[in-house]
Design goal:
Helix 1 packs parallel to helix 2 and helix 1 runs antiparallel to helix 7. A four-stranded mixed sheet has the order 2-1-3-4, covered by helices on one side. 54% of the residues lie in helices and 7% in strands. The protein has 243 residues and is of the alpha+beta class. It binds glutathione (GSH).
């Protein structure tokens, strides 16, 4: 049995983390039985979520989880795609994971109002007397990480410009297709869904959300993916599969 270690639902999303949502979507796409456990962060092999335990084998990082599923269960998430399409899908996946992601982190953690609406809730389990200290420490660490990665060196307007270009590109490439690469879902849809839903989360007031809301095809896409893989959630961010 597979256990997926998660943060748990948050911000009106399947999980507070887009990478966890991606991994869970992949498990659903693969049709594999799994359970979730939101108590595993302190034991995460790479200090991050997601990771899975598959009958005693632990695999950390959503990309390695994908490759593990493909190898062990003989699944090709990109079946039906030719080599050029696979390359495009991979590039878009990494655009969101390695570029847009950091703009999302900046929007959720650096902006005070968004932090109060969102990530502050993560710390409710910390004893009240030390909570402000722990919050200040983790936010400081997040700012350092943003600086080291590079996104944190830009002004907010520059970050928004970079993120908007990524969001516009996703919308442009999706066009009117049901799924990102065509009529059927493929591996990249797990990432596109997780990040698009995350950006559209009504918990946060961000220019990133405004950028995504300009594209009706993104909301319909999130609605379609939700209906297919997370029907129990009803709607995410008010996104409907059809107008
Ligand atoms: N490359 C990783 C990224 C995972 C990731 O960044 N997870 C974040 C949450 S979105 C995390 O666990 N952060 C905790 C920390 O950095 O302390 C993947 O694809 O799984």
């Amino acid at each position: 049995m597979i256990t997926l270690y998660t943060f748990g639902p948050g911000f009106g999303l399947p999980d507070a983390s887009p990478f966890v949502t991606k991994a869970e979507t992949l498990l659903k796409m693969a049709g594999l039985p799994y359970r979730t456990d939101n108590t595993g962060f302190s034991k995460a092999p790479k200090g991050k979520l997601p990771y899975i335990d598959d009958d005693g084998e632990r695999i950390a990082d959503s990309t390695f989880i994908r490759w593990h599923i493909e190898r062990k269960y003989d699944i090709d998430f990109d079946r039906g795609l030719d080599r050029e399409q696979r390359a495009v899908a991979w590039a878009f996946e990494k655009l969101l994971e390695d570029n847009l992601y950091w703009a999302v982190v900046e929007a959720r953690w650096a902006d005070k109002d968004n932090f109060d609406r969102g990530p502050r809730q993560f710390f409710l389990g910390v004893p009240a007397p030390v909570r402000p200290l722990v919050i200040a420490m983790v936010r400081r660490q997040t700012r350092k990480t943003l600086h080291a990665q590079g996104m944190g060196r830009h002004s907010r307007a520059e970050i928004v410009a970079i993120a908007t270009r990524a969001i516009d590109s996703v919308s442009e490439y999706l066009q009117k297709k049901p799924f990102f690469m065509g009529p059927e879902p493929s591996g990249v849809d797990a990432t596109i869904f997780a990040f698009t839903a995350g950006v559209l989360s009504p918990t946060f007031e961000t220019p990133l959300r405004t950028a995504a809301e300009r594209h009706a095809n993104l909301a319909r896409y999130v609605g379609r993916m939700t209906a297919r893989y997370f029907p129990e959630l009803g709607e995410i961010a008010g996104c409907k599969a059809e107008p």
